[in-house]
Q: What sequence folds into this?
């Protein structure tokens, strides 16, 4: 039988739990190893399927990967291929992060065009437009994007919308371009800043990461370094909501509270008791949360990657909440599953209206994407009765043994195979 999670709900979680490193920082950092012939070591890499997929992709391009999650060492002395095959890109969209580094260092890249996925259409036109502005020739051949450039030339790029991996791809490409590139409307996510910090340690010259305008003075080559990945703000947020939804007392450690400001403000609005230290957040809740309205937006706004989990919390809030998803067009798949657990949620377009119920009921449910899976786990923890979540491979792409972390807080969660 495929793995599934069985949760006996209703236990208030208690204790201390430590957050793993950020998946969405680790993946671009690994792609950045393609930019140099010298070794790049990443300490504190999360043990996740997406990370293993990126290892396979890098190996296929000619990178030697050694070590383990405590210290992952990558060296790309020379590239042996410029192809990111469909088999890998269709498993993990973040594979597209090799595009910028390959064109910048190798002069060519053939990357399978990712198709749509459960949460939306997710085109990569902004990545391609930006690379074209840097002088790359871009063609589409049999489902593959083929990009070529002798040496990229710095340019002024203004993206039409805020894109996280798009900004990351363009910053990596511009790091080796000739001249000073300016990216306007850049993503301000902490993961972009982490990548800029890594590239700077490799010898890149980058100003403004974390703001909407990033300037990059291209250099002829980059060197190796050792870098520690930042804590995963979405895992942290998920664990904080786990404390709140079970009306427990949980201290989530290894967090950067500044990365969680929008979420923490929203939880306070819901009446969730929070104590914020320099590297930890303690959540204490004893009653039902208050209803609240949530609108997702790029950082520092409320993250789309926490929308599903907070919907689970609002599902048992006192009153009516409205959740508006502005980043992805189809990111409400969890709503229908929560309804199977007795939630009262109606969705129309990009809006969900949630009328809080006293309690969820355990039920068999199905995960549809990574964060939707987390939302179902949270509802299961709070539910009366048993919840069985199937298709948890979605969960395991982005959470490092969430079942064990929750068990450590007293939850009755078992991973069954
Ligand atoms: N978009 C375009 N054209 C582009 C790029 C993006 O139209 O060229 C659209 C997307 O379709 C979407 C919006 O712009 O509607 C924002 O997409 P973005 O490019 O920012 O998303 P991403 O870079 O593909 C990253 C995270 C996602 C996270 C989003 C938004 C990584 C590896 N992935 O994706 O993480 O939801 O930013 O914050 O960093 C997850 O971890 O569960 C996850 C999906």
A:
């Amino acid at each position: 039988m495929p793995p599934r999670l069985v949760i006996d709900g209703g236990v208030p979680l208690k204790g201390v739990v430590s957050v793993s490193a950020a998946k969405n920082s680790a993946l671009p950092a690994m792609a950045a190893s393609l930019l140099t012939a010298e070794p790049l070591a990443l300490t504190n890499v999360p043990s996740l399927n997406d990370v293993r997929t990126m290892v396979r992709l890098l190996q296929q391009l000619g990178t030697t990967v050694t070590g383990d999650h405590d210290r992952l060492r990558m060296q790309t002395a020379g590239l042996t291929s410029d192809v990111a095959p469909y088999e890998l890109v269709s498993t993990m969209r973040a594979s597209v992060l090799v595009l910028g580094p390959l064109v910048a260092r190798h002069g060519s890249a053939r990357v399978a065009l990712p198709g749509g996925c459960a949460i939306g259409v997710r085109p990569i036109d902004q990545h391609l437009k930006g690379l074209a502005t840097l002088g790359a020739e871009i063609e589409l051949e049999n489902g593959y994007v083929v990009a070529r450039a002798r040496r990229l030339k710095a340019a002024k790029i203004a993206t039409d919308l805020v894109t996280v991996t798009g900004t990351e791809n363009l910053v990596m490409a511009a790091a080796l371009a000739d001249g000073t590139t300016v990216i306007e409307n850049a993503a301000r996510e902490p993961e972009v800043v982490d990548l800029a910090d890594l590239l700077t340690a490799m010898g890149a010259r980058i100003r403004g990461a974390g703001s909407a305008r990033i300037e990059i003075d291209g250099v002829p080559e980059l060197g190796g370094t050792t870098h520690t990945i930042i804590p995963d703000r979405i895992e942290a947020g998920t664990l904080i909501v786990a404390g709140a939804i079970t009306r427990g007392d949980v201290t989530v450690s290894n967090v950067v509270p500044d990365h969680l400001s929008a979420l923490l403000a929203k939880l306070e609005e819901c009446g969730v008791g929070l104590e914020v230290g320099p590297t930890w957040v303690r959540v204490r809740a004893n009653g039902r949360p208050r209803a609240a309205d949530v609108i997702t937006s790029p950082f520092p706004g409320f993250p789309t990657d926490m929308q599903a989990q907070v919907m689970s919390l609002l599902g048992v809030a006192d009153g009516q909440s409205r959740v508006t998803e502005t980043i992805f067009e189809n990111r409400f798949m969890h709503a229908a599953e929560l309804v199977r657990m007795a939630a009262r949620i109606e969705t129309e377009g990009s809006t969900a209206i949630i009328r809080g119920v006293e309690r969820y009921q355990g039920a068999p449910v199905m995960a549809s994407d990574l964060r939707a899976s987390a939302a179902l786990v949270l509802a299961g923890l709070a539910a009366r009765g048993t919840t069985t979540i199937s298709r948890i491979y979605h969960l395991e792409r982005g959470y490092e043994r969430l079942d064990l972390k929750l068990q450590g807080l007293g939850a009755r969660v078992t991973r069954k195979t």
